[in-house]
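This section describes the prediction task in plain terms. A model, or a person checking by hand, is given the sequence of a single protein chain and must write out its three-dimensional structure as a string of tokens. No templates, partner chains or ligands are provided. The sample shown here is typical of the held-out split.
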Amino acid sequence: MKAIRKQGFTLATIGLVIGAAAGTATLEGCDDQNGICGPCGTIATGQVSISGNAQLDGFFGAVADIQGASATLRGNFEGELRALAAVYGRADAEVNADLVANIIGDIRADIDASVSGSFRLQYQPPRCSANVNVAIEAQASCEASASCDVEATPPSAEVRCEGSCSGSCSGECSGSISCTPPSGSAECDVGCEGSCAFTTAAQCDGTCNGACDGECSLMDANGQCQGECSGNCDGSCEFRAMAMCEGTCHGECHASVTPPECEAQPITCNAECMGMCEGGCAGDFTPPSASADCEASADCEAQASAQAEANIECTPPSLEFGFELDASLDADARAQFVARLDAVRVHLAGALQAAAQAEALFSGKIDGEVVFDPSPVANLTASIQGIVDAGISGDLNIPVGRIDCVIPALNASVEALGDVRGDLQFTAEASIDLFAFASNPTG
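The expected answer:
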């Protein structure tokens, strides 16, 4: 790596200086020539315009973002676990792996005591992707700071995604697409999310609204089914999860090719995009340049990608239970079990969403598949540690008034990323049994 140069001063041994500079984050730097004066920004306060150089400050911003995300995720995960524990009288228990095992045991015991016959859980895991809008904004800001002629109108929120695109795709989508047709009559050959108006009576894995030729869990005043139907449903079905619809899909239509009804509607790609992706990207991607001719474009890409990966977003999982209550239970016991299971569904979904995002940041895995290699945390840690060990990558000029700000900020970044790894690892590892339960609730 090249050294930092600042008006005749070369900081080639930043790794040696860092120890002596620790604790100086409140030093004031002043560079009249560049108009940079005042107290140093810090990772802790989120004031990350620390070095006066966007290529470096972008990494500080990524550290602050991922630090905030890890603390939030751990807090959300532990909060959901406590709520689950409270359902079964364990509100004061310490949050650890033993508590997770106890919660799962309590839920399974509750099911065994209250359900006769079949019990099922329809589960769709969270879907996670890096926020490409963050990358595009970070790239444009970095190029502007390098005096590039950045377009007055920001570039379209599109990136070249080398993984799975979860958004619109300017080219061919290699997997299924989804849309919401206005007429609700599209050919959904992959599945339908929402409700389906059956052409003929069929099995309904969800809530049947109509006639049921088997046992129905809930009837209306007119004798029509408004609940689970053990036989065929003649009417409409509100699906628990995506399913095939032999009729008219009212909701989101998933198809292998674009149905005619969707051609004028927004199309979402849920797989590899043979073009530019707008939305989210699970995998490697390249932020587009905001300038037609910018020598700093390539130098800005690493920090822009780091900021996008620090802001991974995950959709909540889908969890729906299906069961037959034990006939020996009285009305009060039935109502209490249904209420407990509803609380389990809500808080388990919240815990799994936080855990999925933590795992994506910590290990680079999404639903067991490695999509970020190295993981966002490992990649950012390596970038910061490389700067600490050998100086700033690239021929960057740090204003003289900011050198004393950069050194403690790098030290704080290394410490912050160590804390982040601990928070994310705890959340990811503590959730392993929860993900296993969602896939196999009865063990």
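For orientation: Residues 1-29 have pLDDT under 50 and may be disordered.
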